[in-house]
Amino acid sequence: MEPVRELTLGRTQLTIEMGDITIKATDAIVNAANVRLSHGGGVAKAISDKGGPGIQKLSDEYIRLNGQLATADAVILSGCELRCKWVIHAVGPIYKEEKEPNLLLSQCVKNILIIAEESRIQTLAIPAISSGIYGFPLKDCAEIMLETIKKYFEDVRESCIKHVFIVIHQERKDTFTEFCKVYTRIKHSARNPKPQEPIRNPKPQEAIP
Q1: What is the CB neighbour count within 10 angstroms for residue 174?
Q2: What are 159-168's pLDDT values in tens digits?
Q3: What is the pLDDT of residues 109-128, one digit of tens each?
Q4: At what angle do helices 138-155 and 101-118 cross, to 10 degrees?
Q5: Which of 19, 49, 145, 194 places its Cα 20 to 30 Å from the Cα of 82?
Q6: Residues 6 or more apart from 88 whose CB is under 8 A from it?
Q7: 3-class SS at 88?
């Protein structure tokens, strides 16, 4: 059995696991897409191959009608022949080509969660966005993705999203290790919150003679 880490964020369960995102039976999975929604390599190709020709056909039609996406954009389209009902195509930043890649990755993850919320998605699987050929440092990718997800569910208390899976490919144990390090820190901080500073009464002002 593949290793799993689990964490509760408000009413939402977060699971970090190794596996194959293309066979997840969640309401939606996330595709690490490019701006043209041309699914020619990496997780995008795996999702397109598994989901049948409809995945690329729908993507081409979307681009024809709307134009190419920008970095951090996310759109939701049918899952076609996949086990999930929907695919959220999200454009992560190419690390060395962006001035603010950290900000863009955080916004990308937030946009994924927003579009899932708007689409009433209850279970969602997300890969390690931009950590492959887009060159995002694994430590930073894990930190930004998990902290963004944590903050989102702190801010959105009544989310319809019940379970988020971070799915790391079986061959990328180094990526899983980095996500586990961040997971451990977040879980520890949740169990041991910093004590609040006591409120001290201000000193009475001296009377002005």
Answers
A1: 10
A2: 999 999 999 9
A3: 999 999 999 999 999 999 99
A4: 40
A5: 145
A6: 28, 29, 30, 31, 74, 75, 76, 112, 115, 116, 124
A7: strand
